């Protein structure tokens, strides 16, 4: 059974940092690319970052370039999103996603507010 479980969200002030984690199970994690998506209230879901199965290819949406870092630890079946210099417009539910398999985690809420 495939499972993706995110954690690390919370309330943070503008300019703050959070590190999201996604633990994967039930499939050969190191064989698949992974992505982080986010969805803010009233908005469409947006791809934030992607990483290939080996970690050699990484992409970011323009609005997070230079602030967010996606990474993975294949030995631990873990996907990460380090988010620095957070802005109110980063407020959303963040979810991890398996490329090709199409599985989603339940999401973790990130709220950036003073």
If you had to describe this structure to a student in words, what would you say it looks like?
This protein is an all-beta fold and 114 residues long. 0% of the residues lie in helices and 48% in strands. The protein is built from no helices and ten strands. The strands form two sheets. Strands 2-10-9-4-5-6 form a six-stranded mixed β-sheet, with no helix packed on it. It is globular, with a radius of gyration of 13 Å. The mean pLDDT is 97.
Mean pLDDT: 97
Give the DSSP E fraction (strand runs of 2 or more residues): over 45%
Using only CA atoms, what is the Rg?
Answer: 13 Å
Number of helices: 0
What structural category arises from helix and sheet content?
mainly beta
What oligomeric state best describes the polypeptide chains here? single chain
Q: Give the strand line-up of the largest sheet.
A: 2-10-9-4-5-6
Largest β sheet strand count, sense and barrel closure: 6 strands, mixed
In helices, the fraction of residues equals: under 10%
Number of strands: 10
Low-confidence stretches: none
Order of helical and strand elements: EEEEEEEEEE
Kindly, what is the distance between the CA atoms of the first and last residues, rounded to a whole number of angstroms? 40 Å
Shape label: globular
